[in-house]
């Protein structure tokens, strides 16, 4: 049992600076060579399946949007190619929908996924960060905004992807099961669905190639490719530079944990030194 003199000793230790955060250096909390988990294994597997199915959909869907493109006649040159293209396109579509469903389950069931999901929900600070970064790029501000685990670009990409999968899944299913769609909706609705499906695919492809590929892989800081999607890890330097608020939280949590360990150690020393009654 902890006595009053135990607490008095701890109070004196705190006054003496033994439990002060200033006594614990950042290097003691985070070694220079430490790497942080950015993407868990389940998330990396989702990512691989996602981009594989996505680019398969793009490749097999282009003939429907641009049927007269010369390159397509070279890719789909044999008689059964159009039928095979349709099969592959549908398989990739079902795979993409499966990834979307798995992500929902992962967010609900996995503590890691649930925690990250709450961090990726947009808020008013993201709008301020976007404006401040824009002003910084124009040279009107000197200090760049500081981000947590996800910046506003990553949040935008995540929710744009979620919306895109939903739209492509709904319109794709309507085009796949035309008879059921025509039975439920006027024929002109199916025409609109076909247009939406095609142009949403083009928009998603351009967003991935221009926006995502540059920010993640072609950026001069990581060119020619970021390895996070393979290893799932980032260095201490990358954490401090790109996610300083998350790094600050990690320092705070580790410092508090170390403080608790010191308190426990002091209490044990007090108990050992106390004469038995």
Automatic annotation (TrEMBL):
The chain crosses the membrane at residues 48-67, 87-109, 156-177, 183-211. InterPro entries: Cyt_b561_bac/Ni-Hgenase, Di-haem_cyt_TM, FDH_cytochrome_b556_subunit. It holds the Pfam family Ni_hydr_CYTB. GO terms for cellular component: formate dehydrogenase complex; plasma membrane. Residues 41-216 form the Cytochrome b561 bacterial/Ni-hydrogenase domain. It is found in: Cell membrane. It is a multi-pass membrane protein. It comes from the Bacteria. Its main location: membrane. This is Cytochrome b561 bacterial/Ni-hydrogenase domain-containing protein. It comes from Candidatus Abyssobacteria bacterium SURF_17.
């Amino acid at each position: 049992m902890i006595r009053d003199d135990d607490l008095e000793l701890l109070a004196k230790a705190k006054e003496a600076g033994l439990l002060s955060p200033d006594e614990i250096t950042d290097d003691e909390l985070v070694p220079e060579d430490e790497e942080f988990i950015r993407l868990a294994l389940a998330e990396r597997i989702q990512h691989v399946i996602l981009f594989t199915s996505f680019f398969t959909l793009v490749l097999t869907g282009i003939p429907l949007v641009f049927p007269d493109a010369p390159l397509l006649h070279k890719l789909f040159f044999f008689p059964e190619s159009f039928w095979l293209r349709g099969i592959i396109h549908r398989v990739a579509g079902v795979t993409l929908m499966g990834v979307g469903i798995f992500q929902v389950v992962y967010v609900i069931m996995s503590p890691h996924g649930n925690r990250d999901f709450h961090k990726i929900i947009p808020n008013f600070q993201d709008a301020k960060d976007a404006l401040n970064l824009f002003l910084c790029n124009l040279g009107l501000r000197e200090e760049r905004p500081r981000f947590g685990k996800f910046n506003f670009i990553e949040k935008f990409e995540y929710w744009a992807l979620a919306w895109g999968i939903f739209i492509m899944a709904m319109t794709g299913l309507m085009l796949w099961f035309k008879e059921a769609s025509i039975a439920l909706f006027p024929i002109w609705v199916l025409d609109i669905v076909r247009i939406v499906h095609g142009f949403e695919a083009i928009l998603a492809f351009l967003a991935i190639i221009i926006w995502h590929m540059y920010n993640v892989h072609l950026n001069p800081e990581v060119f020619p490719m970021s390895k996070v999607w393979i290893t799932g890890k980032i260095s201490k330097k990358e954490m401090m530079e790109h996610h300083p608020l998350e790094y600050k939280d990690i320092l705070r949590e580790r410092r508090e944990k170390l403080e608790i360990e010191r308190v426990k150690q002091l209490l044990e020393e007090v108990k050992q030194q106390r004469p038995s009654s």
